[in-house]
């Protein structure tokens, strides 16, 4: 349900009876994570009120082309740059005609001319108007200009006619939006192993020590990489998340399990990302029987766990590109760079967990990326969006290193 997270969808509504379905479309797009802004033509306001669309979209509705006080406010330029996808629904015969000849006589058509984003029209009109040669010619022209045409459906029409011209149902429009915004397959043929979540280190048959990792960051990276065509293996500690589509998941409990599973597959990986919060220590001995509560104090000796990522970065043969994570509360850059150097990583991604709602068990995050000779800040956003930005950076530097 989150395929549209972080996507900006501009919905252009023109004056057709199907406008009554637009609140359902907006709700569905928002439920899947998109931010929706609405632009209405004058005629659309006869079919549905701007107030309704303002309430369901959670944003002001735009209509006026020339109602601003400074150049920086020019809504047609701002909205055109903002949009990842423009959906015109319902798109009347008049709107299709105006678009096909490049008119810019209202806010919506002006935005379409000024936008670099994909544009999809969802025709909605009487069947005879749709069948008219001139409408068909206009649709052909739109297609030649790389404008997507979604639909129409065929069936009983509001006017009583039967035929093609019904607007696609909101769910179909949403599915088409998801497909058209899916990421380019720029990681085909790449094998990626990702560790995620916490490890649990047993104390006795009842108790263990662990940490606050929810697995969300690592799972998001796995999902993003799979969306881009990579072959992804996710070595996961105990978390409450479902496996992203197309990802091979290997469940582990302890750091030692994780070490073993990573080394079982590492020789076939081009990229390794250590996002797990591995327990640094484990009890020297796992007590066989339940520790009884009669003592006021108990002592447990902990020994250091093996450093999984450092062991991967040490490989001489088939060493992958190695990316580590660091959760830091202070001196972010110095601490993260020291970790990168000590573990011989290509890149380290530092979370500042002193900030509220960053890092562990959150939906959103921000990352500071540190290479030997470069740093990049990825601003606060949903972990899936952040993961795609992170993969953009990893790919650039991986390609540079390997001339892949
Ligand atoms: O799971 P979430 O709730 O979404 O939270 C994400 C996260 C905060 C856990 C994640 O973004 C993160 O920062 N993970 C690393 C946490 C950390 O501080 O790790 P570290 O400093 O202990 O280790 C540094 C690197 O070495 C990490 O890549 C870690 O996976 C790796 N490591 C550490 C110890 C060890 N024995 N083996 C390892 O491979």
Automatic annotation (TrEMBL):
Q: Which cofactor does it need?
A: FMN; Mg(2+)
Q: Where is this region: Phosphopantothenoylcysteine decarboxylase?
A: 1-191
One GO biological process this protein is involved in is: coenzyme A biosynthetic process
Q: What sequence ranges are listed for the domain DNA/pantothenate metabolism flavoprotein C-terminal?
A: 191-396
Enzyme active site: 159 (proton donor)
Q: Which residues form the Flavoprotein domain?
A: 7-174
Q: Which GO terms describe its cellular component?
A: phosphopantothenoylcysteine decarboxylase complex
Q: Which InterPro entries does the record match to this protein? A: CoaB-like_sf, CoaBC, DNA/pantothenate-metab_flavo_C, Flavin_trans-like, Flavoprotein
What is the UniProt remark on how the cofactor binds and its stoichiometry?
A: Binds 1 FMN per subunit.
Question: What Pfam families does the record tag this protein with?
Answer: DFP, Flavoprotein
Where is CTP annotated to bind?
274-276, 280, 290, 325, 339, 343
Q: What is its EC number?
A: 4.1.1.36, 6.3.2.5
Pathway recorded for this protein: Cofactor biosynthesis; coenzyme A biosynthesis; CoA from (R)-pantothenate: step 3/5; Cofactor biosynthesis; coenzyme A biosynthesis; CoA from (R)-pantothenate: step 2/5
Q: Which UniProt keywords apply?
A: Decarboxylase, Flavoprotein, FMN, Ligase, Lyase, Magnesium, Metal-binding, Multifunctional enzyme
Q: What does this protein do?
A: Catalyzes two sequential steps in the biosynthesis of coenzyme A. In the first step cysteine is conjugated to 4'-phosphopantothenate to form 4-phosphopantothenoylcysteine. In the second step the latter compound is decarboxylated to form 4'-phosphopantotheine.
The similarity annotation says: In the N-terminal section; belongs to the HFCD (homo-oligomeric flavin containing Cys decarboxylase) superfamily.
| Protein name per UniProt | Coenzyme A biosynthesis bifunctional protein CoaBC
Species annotation: Candidatus Arsenophonus lipoptenae
């Amino acid at each position: 349900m989150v395929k549209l997270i972080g996507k900006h969808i501009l919905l252009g509504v023109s004056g057709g009876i199907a406008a009554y379905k637009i609140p359902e479309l907006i709700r569905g797009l928002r439920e899947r994570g998109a931010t929706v802004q609405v632009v209405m033509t004058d005629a659309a306001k006869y079919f549905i009120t701007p107030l309704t669309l303002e309430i369901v979209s959670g944003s002001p509705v735009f209509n006026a082309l020339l109602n601003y006080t400074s150049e920086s406010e020019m809504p047609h330029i701002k909205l055109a740059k903002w949009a990842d996808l423009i959906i015109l629904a319902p798109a009347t015969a008049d709107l299709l005609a105006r678009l096909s000849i490049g008119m810019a006589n209202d806010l919506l058509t002006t935005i379409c001319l000024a936008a670099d984003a994909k544009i999809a029209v969802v025709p909605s009109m009487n069947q005879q108007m749709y069948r008219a040669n001139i409408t068909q010619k206009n649709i052909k022209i739109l297609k030649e200009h790389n404008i997507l045409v979604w639909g129409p459906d065929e069936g009983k029409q509001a006017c009583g006619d039967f035929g093609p011209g019904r607007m696609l149902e909101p769910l179909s429009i949403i599915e088409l939006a998801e497909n058209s915004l899916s990421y380019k397959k720029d990681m085909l043929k790449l094998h990626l192993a990702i560790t995620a979540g916490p490890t649990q280190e047993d104390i006795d048959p009842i108790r263990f020590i662990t940490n606050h990792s929810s697995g969300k960051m690592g799972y998001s990276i796995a999902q993003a990489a799979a969306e881009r065509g990579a072959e992804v293996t996710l070595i996961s500690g105990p978390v409450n998340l479902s496996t992203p589509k197309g990802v091979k998941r290997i469940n582990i409990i302890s750091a030692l399990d994780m070490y073993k599973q990573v080394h079982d597959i590492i020789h076939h990986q081009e990229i390794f990302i250590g996002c797990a919060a591995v327990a640094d220590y484990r009890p020297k001995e796992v007590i066989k029987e339940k520790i009884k509560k009669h003592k006021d104090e108990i002592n447990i000796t902990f020994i250091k766990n093996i450093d999984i990522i450092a062991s991967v970065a040490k490989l001489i043969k088939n060493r992958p590109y190695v990316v580590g994570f660091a959760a830091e509360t202070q001196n972010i850059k110095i601490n993260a760079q020291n970790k990168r150097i000590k573990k011989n990583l290509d890149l380290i991604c530092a979370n500042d967990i002193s900030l509220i709602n960053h890092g562990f068990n959150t939906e959103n995050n921000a990352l500071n990326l540190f290479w030997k000779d470069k740093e990049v800040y990825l601003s606060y956003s949903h972990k899936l969006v952040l993961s795609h930005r992170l993969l953009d950076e990893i790919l650039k530097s991986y390609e540079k290193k390997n001339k892949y």
